Amino acid sequence: MRMQPENLWDAVIACRAEYDGIFYYGVKTTRIFCRPSCKSKTPKRENVDFFINAREAMEKGYRPCKRCRPDLLEAVYDPHEPWVREVRELLEKEYHIMWTLDRLSRRVGMSAFHLQRMFKKYTGMSPKQYLNRIRVEEAKRLLADSGQTITEICFTVGFPGLTPFNRVFRRFTGRSPRAYRKLCCRK
């Protein structure tokens, strides 16, 4: 390994993701090895071994960390990505359900605060904003392609009433559902 142990140790202390895949470190007392970016508790320096690759760490009897998953092939593993994907898929499939942040957080098994913060970090919007976008897209499709009334569409896509439906629809499209339908039917 070309890098000096002091530089490797500095990368571990700072949780530097740019070193992921370049080296790994193992903790002698736990027999667990991690990526440099792992957010687990920083071990004592005297308890750390450095490895060029995950295979070397496993050959020396270390187990992969369950938090940073150094055994996966990706150079960078993000533990939040799978559940953000799960929440997105859930909202896309079950957009018609009356989701609240608390109900959604219980469904995916995390606190509402953490769900809100992480989802927004990864998608750029809150779960509610994401859900409303899906609902409006489906409402646009139904307004253009179905004979359902606006009220029926409102409830079909999961809004609790016409007032929130109209408000959200206008926010996303710049038009009321009625004006949108008239515009679509003219074409």
Automatic annotation (TrEMBL):
One GO MF term attached to the UniProt entry: methylated-DNA-[protein]-cysteine S-methyltransferase activity
Cross-referenced PROSITE patterns: HTH_ARAC_FAMILY_1, HTH_ARAC_FAMILY_2
Encoding gene, per UniProt annotation: txxe 155-adaA
Top-level taxon of the source organism: Bacteria
Designated name of the protein: Methylphosphotriester-DNA alkyltransferase, Transcriptional regulator, AraC family
EC number: 2.1.1.63
Biological-process GO terms, alphabetical: methylation
InterPro entries listed in its UniProt record: Ada-like_dom_sf, Ada_DNA_repair_Zn-bd, Homeodomain-like_sf, HTH_AraC, HTH_AraC-typ_CS, Me-P-triester_DNA_alkyl-Trfase
Domain HTH araC/xylS-type: 85-183
Keyword annotations: Activator, DNA damage, DNA repair, DNA-binding, Metal-binding, Methyltransferase, Transcription, Transcription regulation, Transferase, Zinc
Cofactor(s) needed by this chain: Zn(2+)
Pfam families tied to this protein: Ada_Zn_binding, HTH_18
Coiled-coil boundaries: none
